[in-house]
Specification:
Keywords: Signal. The chain has about 140 residues and is of the alpha+beta class. The protein contains one helix and eight strands; from the N terminus they run αββββββββ. The chain has one domain: Crystallins (Gamma-B Crystallin, domain 1), CATH 2.60.20.10. Helices cover about 20% and strands about 35% of the residues. The strands form two sheets. Strands 1, 2, 3, 4, 5 and 8 form a six-stranded antiparallel beta sheet that branches. The structure holds 2-acetamido-2-deoxy-beta-D-glucopyranose (NAG). The site of 2-acetamido-2-deoxy-beta-D-glucopyranose (NAG) has 4 residues, from loops.
């Protein structure tokens, strides 16, 4: 009389463990990083003049230092893929002073002439202002 109950219990425990394993592995799978490339130009974008395509990893800051130093305070045009928003910052480290909102430009999909770029409060001249960039999927 005790045996069927025990078998049932073992089955129930195994089922619970299997469910827990599936649940855990589902939770552990990391969200894939969304890769993207943007094109930035020190001159015009059409025709391309001083352009470079940069890989951006979602939400990580690209400083225009090291090999990208030649672009620091030089970007005039940029192209961002559809489905992404990029913030261009006047300072290194993707820091937003936030006092007047004029230290960032916000770029969505398409080509932007930074001389007339969307800011936080209004459009502004962000030509030759950028020192760091961060992008995210939207
Ligand atoms: C970018 O530059 C800032 C300021 O120099 C620094 O704090 C930050 O760690 C740098 N970020 C990267 C990703 O190199």
């Amino acid at each position: 009389m005790g045996l069927p109950t025990e078998i049932f219990s073992v089955k129930a425990i195994l089922a619970a463990l299997a469910f827990a394993a599936v649940s855990t592995s589902t939770l552990v799978v990391p969200a894939p990083l969304t890769p993207a490339t943007i094109t930035v130009c020190s001159g015009t974008i059409s025709p391309p003049n001083g352009c470079l395509t940069i890989s951006v990893v979602s939400d990580s800051c690209v400083n225009l230092t090291g090999g990208l130093s030649f672009l620091n305070k030089e970007i005039s045009f940029a192209q961002v893929p559809n489905g992404f928003v990029c913030t261009f910052y006047q300072d290194f480290g993707c820091l937003n002073g936030g006092v007047n909102g004029h230290d960032v430009a916000i770029l969505t999909g398409g080509t932007t002439n930074l001389a007339n770029a969307r800011g936080i409060a209004s459009n502004q001249n962000f030509n030759d202002q950028t020192s760091s960039i961060t992008c995210s999927p939207i």
